[in-house]
Structures are given as C-alpha cells and as structure tokens.
Design a protein that fits this description.
globular, two-stranded antiparallel ribbon, mainly alpha
C-alpha cells in the first residue's frame, strides 16, 4: 500500500510541473489530496495493520489516522485555493509567474508530510518534518509583500532552531539504544520493544529536547511566536498549517510519550506536557482578548487548542487519549472553516482588522454566519463535537487536580469571551443607506484609520467609503460549509468505525 502512496506522490509532483493553466494546476492539487484521502481509507479498511515496507517505512492506525486528517484538510484547502489565488492575482498581491511555485510547494507539503508520518525511523521523520517547514514557508512568503517574507523567515528560524534540539534528542536516544542493544537504532518499533532497558534520566532528557522541536512545530507556547505572523500574513489556503503542520508536531509528541510510558520517566514527562499545556492555554487566552486582527485571533486560538491537546496526552489515560485524538480531527474541521471565512472577509475589506469591517451581514452574510458558527464550534459549545472532547479531557484532568481543571475552565471561558467580543464589535458596525456611484458612504460611526483621517483634517465623512461588495470566487464558500457541516454531523453522530479506529490506536500505543 505504501508503494501506491509513493507512486501517487511521484505522478502528481511530475504532472504538477507541466501545466500552465491555473484550472489544471488546481485540479491536480485537489486530485492529489483526494487520492491520498481515498488510499488512506482503503488502507484502513483492507490492510492488516500494523505493517512494514522495508526498513524505514511503517503503517499503523495512528499514522493513517493523521494522514486521513491531513488529506482531508489539504483537499478542502485545494478547492478553496483556486478562487482565493485568482483574487490575489487580480489584486496584484500574487505574481502570476509564482503560481506554479505556489502549487509546487502546496503539493510538496502533502508529500513530505506523508513520508514523515509513514517513517518508522525517527531520523527520517525528523528530515521530512523539516522539509515540511521549508514548503510551508514558501506558501507564507509567496505573496509580493515584505511582511510575508519576514513572517516566513521568522517561521523557519523558530521552528528549525527548535528542531535542532529535537536532533540532539535523537542523538541521546540513539546512544541509549546502542548502550542497551549493542547496536544503535532510531526505529519506533524497536525502541518501543526495548525502552524499559533504557536509563530513565537520559530518556527524559531525550524526550525534553524532542518536545522542544515537535512543540514548536505544533505551535505550543513558548515556541508559538511564529504562528500569529504566519496566520496573519499567509494566504488563507495556509489553513493547512493548522491541519497539517500542527498535527505533525502533535503526532511526534504522542509517539515519544508513548515510548516513555513504558519507562520510569513517564511521571516527569507527563508533568512537562501538563505544564506546557496549561501555559499554552493561559498565554493564548489572555492574548486573544487583546486581538483586533481576525487571523491573529484564530492563530492564538490554535495555541490554546494545542495546549488542551497536550493536557489530554499528558494525563496518560486511555479515555483522555481517545478524546485528544478525536480533538485533532475536529479542530482541523472547525479551524479551516474559520480561516476560509476569514479569507473571504479579508478579500472584502483588504484587511483582517476589526475596525475595518463594516456591514458584514450586508456585504458577506454567508462568510459572517460561517464565522459565527465556526466560533461557536471552536469554543466548544454543543452540539458541536469539541464540546464532548473538551468535557472528557477536563473530566480526566479533575482526577489529577480539581484546581487544575478549574483554572483551565476559567481560561477557556476567557478564550470564548474573546471570540464573542471580537464578533460583537466587528459585526455591529453599520452604515447609513446612502449610495454614491455604487459605494456606501457616510458611516454611522467611525473608528480606527478613518477616524484618525477625519480628526487630522485629511478627509471628511463623504470621502470615507466602504468597498463594493466582493464577488466571492467560485468554490470558496463550499469548503467552509463542507467542513462546518462535517463537524456538526460528528456532534450528532459518532460513527462506530471512527470509535474502532481510535480504540485501535490506543491499543497499538500500549494504553491498556
């Protein structure tokens, strides 16, 4: 089955370099994602897992599950990309000459992530995880703006710098295996079989170093500082940063913690995860309340959710891990809904700033409702499926400390209030119904840049005009609606096949 994956990767990468038509390039990107999605489903249905291909490639329920999430998020982003990149080119923000580079990086990101996920060898996983950093940075820097290049460089320096610590952790782990087995190895499966023979202190040191690298990839505080800039500056098809890059980091953390659970270092590793999780939630919650930029608000929300995932993993019980794994799926569905909707609003107002959004329900009612429903979903309100995921993780955390649970709950309430505060202020601004040459004028109230211009005498109310309604490109609304509908469906119905898959992951990781 892995041979089919490799064949698909090669075909789509080769054909992606040939066409000059945007429609064909986009169709190849969407086809790439859909085929990965189909092959993942077939592999889960027909293969006897876990299985191996050669010395370095390995399939089990966990990496196929993460690959399934990755392919789903990538496919939705690919369909969204066509209309969004057309808008960018029309606005002069994306050079048409860079379109092929955009889709090359887009496809390579899925390919490198897939190889990383299927790598049994930790060194190979590290190499391809680093390559995903390069591909994602290309997507951030692709626009013709200095700020995008700065955000991409910041992303590369922070994540790659942190991944050097992960490389040190690999050296520690290889040395430990060499001392215990007589021959060093970095294969997950061999390490899991002999981890009880390793020194707990050195194993914990290795885990700590690797947590720094994988935590930066996941956007965990304090290694999260690349995330707000990348979200704010990148095209909204960078929603795959949430669905792919962050889950790749969480995947590495799950694998490493599963190793340590068989050793005497498990309690200390659990404490690291819980402390990092609480810190991430606290920092994100207080930062979110101050945000006036929609994409930065969504970015800090991702930091918050990565923190809650760390807590679910760090608790170390089968039930907590079950809901943490489910959380990974639902977070991608909802977060992409938010980012796709934010992308439409950005094209409407040429800004993600709260003060620049006027008459949202008049100009972009569907994007506004997608954003509202996505916000309700992301804060964990029923009937959306993040509610049971958060509830059971918090319930398990209460067994460790009721005070810890109370503190997390209060911070989650603050994060929810941040979304409510932003939406109320952004969506409540309306204008008087006066039209001049198709443009709405004379705002009822003014804030931000417009207010400053009037105060300085540089403009009057008649000169402050809102943009015409942006004609949403074909295909940009459908991915947001689809992802939100899928999330809502999971809130009402939990498929037996999904439950069996998550149970199989827990069993293979040794949670019994």
């Amino acid at each position: 089955m892995i041979r089919y994956y490799l064949l698909i990767m090669g075909i789509f990468l080769a054909f992606g370099l040939i066409p000059k038509s945007h429609r064909l390039m986009n169709a190849l990107a969407a086809g790439n994602g859909m085929l990965h999605l189909v092959v993942s489903c077939v592999a889960l249905s027909v293969l006897d897992l876990p299985g191996r291909l050669g010395e370095s490639l390995y399939l089990d329920h966990l990496n196929l599950y993460v690959e399934l999430i990755t392919a789903l998020g990538f496919t939705a982003a690919a369909f969204y990309a066509r209309g969004y990149t057309d808008s960018l080119m029309e606005a002069g923000e994306l050079d048409p000459k860079n379109l092929k580079t955009f889709y090359l990086a887009f496809n390579l990101l899925l390919i490198t992530a897939t190889v990383a996920l299927f790598s049994d060898n930790l060194a190979l996983f590290w190499i391809f995880a680093e390559l995903t950093t390069v591909c994602a940075a290309m997507l951030v820097a692709i626009l013709s703006a200095r700020e995008n290049i700065d955000a991409a460089l910041k992303y590369v320096f922070i994540v790659s710098g942190a991944m050097l610590f992960a490389f040190l952790g690999l050296i520690f782990l290889f040395t430990l295996s060499e001392q215990a087995l007589g021959e060093g190895t970095l294969n997950w499966t061999e390490l899991a079989a002999h981890v009880s023979e390793f020194s707990p202190a050195l194993l914990l040191a290795s885990f700590t170093f690797m947590f720094i690298g994988f935590g930066a990839k996941a956007g965990v505080a304090p290694f999260h500082t690349w995330l707000p800039d990348a979200y704010a500056r990148a095209p909204s098809v960078s929603a795959i940063l949430s669905g792919l890059m962050q889950n790749l980091g969480i995947y590495g953390i799950i694998r490493m913690y599963a190793l340590l659970r068989e050793s005497g270092a498990a309690p200390q590793a659990s404490s690291i995860l819980l402390a990092a999780g609480v810190f991430s939630i606290a920092l994100a919650s207080f930062s979110m309340f101050q945000q006036r930029n929609l994409k930065r608000l969504i970015a800090f929300s991702s930091v918050e959710h990565m923190g809650l995932l760390l807590i679910g993993i760090g608790i170390g019980t089968p039930l907590a891990l079950f809901w943490a794994l489910f959380y990974m799926l639902v977070h991608v569905l909802v977060k992409e809904t938010l980012l796709f909707s934010a992308g439409i609003l950005h094209r409407q107002y040429r800004s993600n700033m709260r003060e620049n959004m006027w008459d949202v329900f008049k100009l972009q009612p569907r994007a506004a409702w997608s954003l509202i429903l996505g916000s309700i979903a992301i804060v964990g309100m029923p009937p959306f499926p993040l509610f049971p995921a958060k509830f059971f993780i918090l319930l398990e955390s209460a067994a460790i400390s009721p005070y810890l649970t109370l503190a997390i709950l209060l911070m989650l309430i603050l994060a929810a209030a941040s979304f409510a505060n932003f939406l109320l202020k952004a969506f409540s601004k309306v204008t008087l119904e006066e039209e001049i040459e198709g443009q709405i004028t004379r705002p009822h109230s003014l804030t931000g840049e417009a207010e400053l211009k009037i105060a300085a005498g540089e403009a009057d109310h008649d000169e402050i005009r809102l943009p015409r309604k942006y004609a949403v490109k074909s295909g940009m609304r459908i991915p947001a609606v689809f992802m939100l509908a899928l999330a809502l469906a999971l809130g009402f119905y939990f498929p037996d096949s999904l439950k069996d898959l998550l149970d199989a992951i827990i069993l293979e990781l040794g949670y019994v």
